[in-house]
Amino acid sequence: TNVSVSFETPYGEVEAVRDVSWSLNPGEVLAIVGESGCGKTVMVQSIMKLLPKNSKLKQGEIVVDGQDITHYKERKMRKLRANAFSMVFQDPMSSLNPTIPIGKQMVEAIKKHHKISTDEAKKRAKKLMRMVEIDDVEERFHLQPHFFSGGISVMRKDEEVLTKKLLFNGIFIFSECGGLMISVCRRTEATWKKATNSKSVPI
Q1: More confident call, 188 vs 23
Q2: Which of 20, 70, 80, 135 is the most buried if burial means most Cβ atoms within 10 Å?
Q3: Cβ-contact 193, 27 below 8 angstroms
Q4: pTM score above 0.85
């Protein structure tokens, strides 16, 4: 509520976000639209506290699931990023280690935040891969990201990143959702209904 964010630069203070307020309830989808450089990414990164050190939250209150996280330090934020919200960045490759099989990365993420066996984590990861309509799950589970090449490369990598985010309940933040949403929804109309309705996920 009433969030303002600025940056200290060699040329003085730059105000990136000025007095912005919005709310999001379970099951809702909120699109933040604006021209390049208007502060959309800065605003959502301020919620997750992913801004650089020269940034400053000048005013406002950030409340997530009833918790006032405005002054949370990094240790508390790590727990929230895994459970309360998650962000898919513009470049899906930046969220995937190119040397490690996709399945292994997902299993590591699941086990880091849930006390379950490796076998159970594998089952959960494969189920979520099928949820976003990734073909040949048993085979692709063991492949590194660079095996997804050609015309479907970007779409597949977006889906893999999305699947990793679906491992956790909470808010999904898409830095640039146009291509991702369209590509996934065209492949299966039920994909997003299945993801949002069953989990009541705000986006």
Answers
A1: 23
A2: 80
A3: no
A4: no
